[in-house]
UniProtKB/TrEMBL annotation:
Sorted UniProt keywords: Cell membrane, Coiled coil, Ion channel, Ion transport, Membrane, Signal, Transmembrane, Transmembrane helix, Transport
UniProt entry tagged with the keyword Signal: yes
Signal peptide: 1-18
Topology relative to the membrane: Multi-pass membrane protein
Stored InterPro entries: GABAA/Glycine_rcpt, Neur_chan_lig-bd, Neur_chan_lig-bd_sf, Neur_channel, Neuro-gated_channel_TM_sf, Neuro_actylchol_rec, Neurotrans-gated_channel_TM, Neurotransmitter_ion_chnl_CS
Protein name per UniProt: Neurotransmitter-gated ion-channel ligand-binding domain-containing protein
Gene3D superfamilies hit by this protein: Neurotransmitter-gated ion-channel ligand-binding domain, Neurotransmitter-gated ion-channel transmembrane domain
Native source organism of the sequence: Cloeon dipterum
Amino acid sequence: MLFGLLAPLLLFATAAIAQPSSCPPMTAEEAANMSTSELLLKLTATCRYDKWQRPQSEQKDQPIKVHAKVHVYFLGAIEAQSLKFTAHILLMFRWRDPRLAIPSGSGLDGRVGSSMGGQGLLLRDKIWVPHVYLSNERESVVMGAERKDVRITLHPDGRVEQALRMKVTLYCLMNLQKFPFDQQQCPLMLESWTYNSSELQLQWESTRPVTVNSELLLTEYRLIDTRTTSTEDTEPLLTAAEPTHPRLRPNDSAIVMELEDEEDRALEENEGLRANFSRLEIRFHLAREVGHYVMDYFMPSILLVAMSWVSFWLDPNAIPGRTTLGTSTMLTFITLTRNTGSALPKVSYIKATEVWFIVCTGFIFGSLLEFAFVNTIWRRK
């Protein structure tokens, strides 16, 4: 038992002794004579590179700047029922790590090395990378058949570029008051997870930060434009836990008041334990195509209302025919409305289709009332 506890400590001590505390500086001649693999191993050696340490910015005491760029391959189904949409994107980040710079005079131009797939994941595990997440994410996955589509590129001046091809499912809160003549703005929000805005700052690329596939076609919506913003989000660093008091008797009012005062003081202290985290946001401005609803809902409902008016030209004595015509049009219209609204969530406000439903129902019900009124007068005569 004692050996099992001491074994990890012995291994760690052995590794620390075997590994030198510092590496000799790399010269330009050595860098020029190394292969790409040897150069990457030399740069990321644990004796000179600590992947857990954030790179220093160009200006002292300034946050490191991470530039982002997004290419949208495909926008999938935008589901109003579950308030979500899917997208296939290429997410690209760029930052500068001076520890990975090559000495000048080595003759290396362009990129030092580029690793993709499994090698890209291995290189990403050896260097520092920013932890950026999608704050409105429902689920996401890095795409790839045999290997994950991850690319890491190093440049001689220390610039690092990371690219990931991802399939993401994101939440999109929709306002359906004008449905189906509505327009939605679905966001894609990137936010720093580990470092606050005083340590890491996300920025969009200066030229074309968001690009969209020129052949992109949507089934139910039309993409009007995309807008990018850069903000800061305030997140709590510490949240107050729920108080767990012992079982108190009803006459312990003084103890209860004292505990409540302590809780209030704790909440006031925790209000200061907050930090601002850098956030980038893309808003996809989408307009719904109404052709489907015009042909499948509005035109049939207009025809049903007009059909209910046919009873005005029938003989007042044709009671079975007029009754059947009025009730059948009413039931058919209700079924049509239920089928159209089944794909929408239940909301507390009135939608445009519901206003249309009330008006059409009033016309059809009015034709039934007209028949009852005319039939009553006809029988009295």
